[in-house]
Amino acid sequence: MTQEKFTQRPSRLVEKKLQEKLPRREFLKGMIAATGVAAAVSLGTKDAGASALSDFFKSAFFQKHYKEMTPDEKKVVLARLEKETRERYGVEVKIGDPPPLDGVEFAYFLNLQKCIGCRRCVYACVAENNQSRDPQIQYIKVLEMPEGSLDVDEGEIFYDHEKVPQPGKFYMPVQCHQCSDPPCTKVCPVEATWKEPDGIVVIDYDWCIGCRYCEAACPYEARRFNFTEPQIPKDEINPNQSYLSNRIRPRGVMEKCTFCLHRTREGRYPACLEACPTGSRKFGNLLDPKSEVRAILETKRVFVLKEDLKTHPHFYYFFG
Amino acid sequence: MAIYFQFWKDMIRQVLIGPRIYYIWLGFLGVLMLIGSAGYYYQLRNGLIVTNMSDQISWGAYIANFTYIVGLAAAAVMLVIPAYVYKIKAMKEITLIGELFAISAIVMCLMFVTVDMGRPDRFWHLIPKLGRMNWPISMLSWDVIVLNGYLLINLHIPGYLLYKKYRGQPPTDAYYMPFVIISVFWAVSIHTVTAFLYAGLGGKPFWNSAVVAPRFLASAFAVGPSFILLTLQIIEKYSSFKVEHEVYRVLKRIIAVSLLINLFLLASEVFKEFYTDSAHSASAKYLFTGIDGYVLLVPFIWTAIVLNVVATVIYASPQWSRGMRNVNIASVCAIVGIWIEKGMGLIVPGFVPSPLGTIVEYSPSLVELAVCLGIWATGFFVFTLLLKAALPIEIGTVRHREENWEFPRSSSWP
Fold first, then answer.
1. Who's near B105: CB < 8 A, 6+ residues apart?
2. Which secondary-structure segment (H or E) carries B377?
3. What is the crossing angle of helices B212-238 and B366-395, to 10°?
4. Rounded CA gap, A205 and A85, in Å?
């Protein structure tokens, strides 16, 4: 038998206690104690701090790392998260956990010649992935670049024109590059972020301690931190959610683009690609020799950003 | 065992009683601690949004102070080496103070890391075995280990020596000397690991420099002894603890050499950045000259450089460093100058411009300042209490007294 973990102990003890047939007197004692605790908790609920405290003892605090949860434990956690969303936002959502597919390594290709800098991808992403609206969290940044340069320092993120594209400019959207050798997962002190077998870098939002070291390490500015409780209007919540991607994040943790893994692992395209009016975005399985992305890789002039850092992104730019 | 409890009881008694000035000092620190707690409570209620940190500048005043104070903690080693390696007897008497200083510094470090966490309730994820520590890959997990290890070493050595002194027994070398030797290397490691936290990031060219760790050590070995130099004079003023002249002489020499090396390393960095003048020098340019009209840090870094130069010149000149008054001024200059250099001069510009070339400026919010102030006050509070308890034992005014009758050792015992 493997050694029991500290975090498993409380739940096992509770289960054991529940299964035992309690003698009457013990039962009464327990009832009295429980009433005491409940009274204390209910007294405290007026205060947000105290209610946070009681939530904390209920289960979330003792939740295990995603990779250590059994399928049954995952079910419990997903149900709890659905319940929390219902209580907080009054919305019924379905939180799934689609696994990576065998023989799949996702890659994104972006045609710099076609992108017009309209930023429809940015807002499709915000809507799809339940990002906070206030303050607004965006995963995609579109750089307005002067022709003749690929130096990101020359680019402008906060452009605001009546019309795009502007003459003499080209547009370079940047989002998480899902690096093969990601600096962000390397620096995380608690393994709250890691690379999945299909090449997607994910975060266990319930394990992240919020130290923001990964954000400092990312050379593509791809990570966003929940500095406060995310604000999303009730009717804008996307109910199709998954544990590792677009479920509503808690405060004080990191989040990032996951290539919409709740969609792409089910054979659909990422939301940003569907929103793109020019067809600059291409997405597919790099391991499939007949895929469109392989054809681009083999026939177009392809490059990656900041190649000198040897992060080996799964996000490529091309001309044509 | 009973004696051990008596030892603690006597120390606690020492902490509770004191002259009026002692209460006033503690009260003053207590007020600052309350202000800090209020700030932290506000931050816990609202999230890190109440700080001025952002996705572009994700570390600010907290981590800057943390980095600086790790150096203070490491500096205790600068008392241990002369005492135990060069066997300067006068230094041996004050290593205790250095170790207590290190304890208070680490307490501050741990507090600064905690207030910087978005989810402090998940601290246990960092505990090996219970959580899931990414060791040995993440430098932050190394930091957790070396800092806590250093805390334990520095609790053990003075704790053991004081207890022995309290009982009037000579200490057994085997129980503490190995830890003294370890602490020398360990002290260097805590600041090196902290430097590697930054130096290991390829995406941040300003930090990605081999000279970060040596610079950290040089500046720490200037600042830590400067703090101790000032502390010793205060202790001499308010207690009967006497510090030999030799101690000040050794400290001055350490500070002088460290300041010179620190300035030289700074010059090396500045040369490399500005002579090369590549795209990787953008952060240095922002720091020293400003970019596109963004000049927030420029006055800070030049103030820091002026203070460092003044401190170095005073310390390096045999004439000016003779009197205690000049040395004290120079020490204060070094303490403030290097504090600016580590914070506004190292952590913040590392993030500017951002990896995609955006310039976002940062200066701490009132809440951050309050929390920082509170943590500093807590550090001084802890240091004061530790000194208050330890010095009487060290001086010899507090000793274990047998209340029972003396055990007769004569041969007349039946």
1. B69, B70, B72, B73, B379
2. helix B366-395
3. 60
4. 15
Q: What is the pLDDT along chain B (414 residues), one digit of tens a residue?
A: 889 999 999 999 999 999 999 999 999 999 999 999 999 999 999 999 999 999 999 999 999 999 999 999 998 888 999 999 899 999 998 999 999 999 999 999 999 999 999 999 999 999 988 999 999 999 999 999 999 999 999 999 999 999 999 999 999 999 999 999 999 999 999 999 999 999 999 999 999 999 999 999 999 999 999 999 999 999 999 988 999 999 999 999 999 999 999 999 999 999 999 999 998 999 999 999 999 999 999 999 999 999 999 999 999 999 999 989 999 999 999 999 999 998 889 999 999 999 999 999 999 999 999 999 999 999 999 999 999 999 999 988 888 876 544 444 443 333
> Hey, is the C-beta of A183 within 8 angstroms of any chain B C-beta?
yes
CA angle at A33 for the pair A30 and A37, rounded to the nearest 5°: 135
| Interface contact flag, A189 B126, Cβ < 8 Å | yes
- Nearest CB among A7, A211, A226 relative to B117 is that of A211
Identify each DSSP E strand in B172-241 by its residue range.
Answer: none
Contact with chain B for residue A140, Cβ under 8 A: no
Gyration radius of chain B over CA positions: 23
B169 closest CA partner among B160, B177, B156, B157: B160
- Per the structure block, which two tokens stand in for A133? 């609206």
Tokens at A32, concatenated: 């009295």
Cβ A65–B282 below 8 Å, yes or no?
no
Its pTM stands at: 0.89
Please report residues of B whose CB lies closer than 8 A to that of A226: 47, 118
Q: Are A52 and A84 in contact (CB under 8 A)?
A: no
For residue A133, what is the DSSP state?
Answer: B
What letter would DSSP give residue A297?
A: H
Asked if residues B377 and B39 have their Cβ atoms less than 8 Å apart, the reply is no
| Token pair of B164 as six digits | 């022995």
Query: In angstroms, rounded to a whole number, what is the distance separating the alpha carbons of residues B255 and B224?
Result: 9
Which candidate, A52, A59, A245, places its Cα nearest to that of A139? A245
Chain CA centroid to CA B206, Å: 24
Amino acid at A161: H
Whether residues A223 and B55 touch (CB distance < 8 A) is answered with yes
